[in-house]
User: What shape does this take?
Amino acid sequence: MIEASIIIGDGRAMTMGMDGHAGAGDAGHDLVCAAASILAQAAVVSICEDRDARGADDRLQCNWMLQLGHAEISVKARGKWRNIVKGKMQMLADGLQLLQDAFPEAIHVRRE
Assistant: This one.
């Protein structure tokens, strides 16, 4: 089972952590794992690797790690970037929630 935790509060850091395997198919053919993985990868590209959003200052700080069976993102954003990042993190959370709704035996999502 994939365990995912997403924190999108009013505090400074927004985080997502995801561990495990869905077990919904053979290795390399598990569509639930593939979907969760691509959602995490898209979030990293959209939030952390978007150089236009980062600008030249420290208004957007992002740390991330993607490994087999593990993903994490931690973002601190200030000013207008906070709302932009918050929207992207909410989209990530919504996508993972849709996976849980369709495959509750394969993924569990905790949102704060």
